[in-house]
Structures are given as C-alpha cells and as structure tokens.
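User: quick one, sequence for these tokens?
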C-alpha cells in the first residue's frame, strides 16, 4: 500500500510544467481524488507511509526546482503542492523539518516558502535558524532572504562568522546589509582575521565601531592568534591598518601582548609581535640599521671590488644602501609600518638627511623623506608611497 501511495502522490503532483496550465477545477479534482484514495486506504496506511510519501513529493522539488516552469510555486501550481503536502502532514508525516532543512540547503526557495506555510498552518516547529545556516553555507541568497523575511530567522552570528572564516564575501555583505549588532560584526572580524581572510577583514573593519574595537582590541588579537592555524596575515593586516584609528594605541596594544606572560596568548602570536610589533622590535630595527650603515662605510672605504663605490654619485650610493629597505617598507601596505621596519627607517632617514628623525612617526612620512634621496629611475619597481 505504501508503494501505491507514493505513486498516487507523485501522479497528483504530476508534471509541474503542465500543472501551470491546468484549470482550477482540474486541480481540485486531482486533490479530491488523492483525498479519496487516502480515505479508502484507511488504517492500511501508517505514519511511515505518509512520511515516506512526503519525502518522495519533496525530493524533486528540492533538487530540480530550477528545471521546472518558473511559475510552479505560485497560483494553481502552488495550490497543488500545498494541498498534497498538507494532506500528507494531516495523515501523519513527521519529516517536515527535515525536508525543510534540505530544501534550504539546496536553495529551493519556493519549496522553503511552501513548507513554512504548511508548518504555520499546522502549528509545526521548523528550525529556521538552522536552515539559515545551511542556506548561507551554500550561498543561497534568495533562500536566506525568504527565511529572514517570511520565517523570521534571527540567528545571524553563527552563519556570519562561518562565512567570514571561509571568505564568502557575498554572504558576509548580505548579513551586514541586513543589519548586524556591533558584537556580531566584531566577532565576524575576529573570525576573518584568525583565518587570514584579509579581504573580508578589510570589508568588516569600517563597520565595527571604534569604541568596540578599543574595548576589545587585546581580546581580538589574542583570539585571532589562538585560532590562526599557522598564518598571522590577518593579525598583520589589522595592525598595518591601524585598526584602533590611533597609531600610538595600535602600537601599544601590540607591545602589551608581546610583553604579556598570559598563558592564553598563543606562543606564535607572542613571538610574531615581539619580532615585528613591539618596542623591542623598534630598538632592534634601529640597531640593525646602524650596523648596516657601518658595514656600508667599511665596504666603501676598504672594499676590494673593481667597481670603486666611492666614485659613484651620492644618490647611487644611497640607493645601494637603502633601496632594499625602501622597497620593503613600500610594499608592506597599510597605514602603519611594523615597529621593526619603523626602527630601520628612523635610522636610515637620520643618515640620509643629516637630521634627527622623529621617533614618534609611524613611518609613512619618513618613507617619503627617504624617497626624496633616491634616484627616481630606480623607484619604478617599487609601489608608490602615499
């Protein structure tokens, strides 16, 4: 009897392209015939039969809805589907939520909408928030809109964070445009940073209020370092972007974590900050550049190269000494240089200009000074400094 029921239900569902052109009377007759079949079958049908038939009816609509006539989910066609599925639910089908989740996962927005209506009509619970997670994971934007607007899904945080971790810009942008709370945006930024999804982090950063970033800056960097998976490109991006909007504050936060003995700080993060973004890194860069200058002077004075470097024009000697540093700083991007590079640059500018450099400078203005002392024809391969 179960097999016959599946066949009748699918027969009633029919070819949706043809159903679209059927009259209301023909549709009503088909539904009446199916209802009569159910009445005749009586107690011979079990809940399992209704459940399996419900699954059989939803299956093609879940996987192949895009191949049907575009109008199948409205008007008479919708009446057929809703009537058929409604009778199966009344008979005891208990897999509405399962089919609902599958339809969300495959992006069958029309079936999702119908199942929402059936669930509401029959006071059934469907997990719209979990469905939103499925739809967002597979980037089914139309289905996501249906779940929020018609299903009242409100759990944005989980799907938003997972989209940020995967680098799915379309989904992240959709959630932000729909409206997210400040903490949701902050946590999504942390997720993108920890996964080194720099483009996602760059998109989210302007949307997180500065007071939230200031209050949670240490926790953001610590969490990103803990879940980084070996790459700290996301952390470097936040620091280079001056994510606190204040160079002194951004440098201070990095230095604080570098000096911290908190066991919650990932060793890789602490080592990275100590080497590149701490006050000690600035001093090390300064000293390294001083040694570099001494070495260059010794080469100029005592070098045995057939090319007499002392006879080269001053700008060329400057280029030999400092062009690699200039290019490294120029390609680092962002608003801030790392403390290590900043230390190198402060000492280099002092040497080429003959004037003490501002140690409080965050670097870009110093880079412009160094650029003025380099031959322009050698700067073609370096990014322009702004």
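Assistant:
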């Amino acid at each position: 009897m179960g097999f016959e029921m599946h066949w009748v239900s699918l027969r009633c569902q029919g070819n949706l392209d043809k159903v679209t052109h059927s009259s209301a009377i023909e549709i009503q007759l088909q539904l009446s015939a199916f209802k009569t079949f159910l009445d005749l079958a009586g107690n011979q049908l079990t809940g399992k039969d209704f459940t399996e038939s419900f699954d059989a009816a939803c299956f093609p609509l879940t996987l192949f809805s895009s191949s049907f006539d575009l109008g199948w989910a409205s008007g008479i066609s919708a009446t057929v589907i809703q009537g058929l599925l409604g009778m199966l639910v009344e008979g005891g089908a208990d897999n509405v939520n399962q089919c609902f989740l599958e339809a969300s996962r495959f992006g069958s927005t029309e079936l999702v909408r119908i199942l929402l209506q059936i669930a509401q009509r029959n006071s059934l619970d469907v997990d719209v928030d979990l469905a939103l997670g499925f739809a967002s994971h597979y980037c089914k934007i139309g289905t996501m809109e249906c779940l929020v607007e018609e299903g009242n899904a409100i759990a944005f945080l989980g799907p938003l964070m997972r989209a940020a971790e995967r680098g799915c810009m379309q989904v992240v942008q959709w959630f932000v445009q729909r409206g997210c709370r400040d903490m949701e945006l902050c946590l999504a930024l942390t997720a993108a940073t920890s996964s080194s999804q720099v483009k996602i982090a760059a998109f989210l950063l302007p949307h997180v209020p500065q007071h939230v970033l200031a209050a949670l800056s240490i926790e953001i960097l610590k969490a990103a370092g803990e879940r980084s998976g070996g790459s700290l490109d996301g952390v470097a991006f936040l620091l280079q972007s001056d994510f606190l909007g204040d160079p002194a504050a951004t440098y201070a936060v990095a230095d604080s974590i570098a000096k911290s003995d908190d066991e919650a700080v990932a060793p890789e993060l602490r080592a990275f900050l100590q080497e590149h973004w701490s006050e000690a890194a600035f001093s090390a860069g300064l000293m390294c550049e001083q040694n570099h200058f001494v070495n260059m002077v010794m080469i100029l004075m005592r070098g045995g190269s057939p090319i007499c470097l002392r006879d080269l024009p001053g700008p060329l000697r400057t280029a030999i000494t400092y062009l690699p540093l200039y290019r490294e700083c120029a390609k680092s991007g962002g608003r801030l240089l790392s403390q290590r590079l900043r230390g190198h640059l402060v000492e280099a500018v002092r040497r080429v200009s003959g004037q003490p450099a501002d140690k409080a400078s965050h670097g870009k203005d110093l880079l412009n000074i160094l650029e003025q002392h380099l031959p322009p024809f050698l700067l073609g391969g370096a990014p322009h400094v702004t």
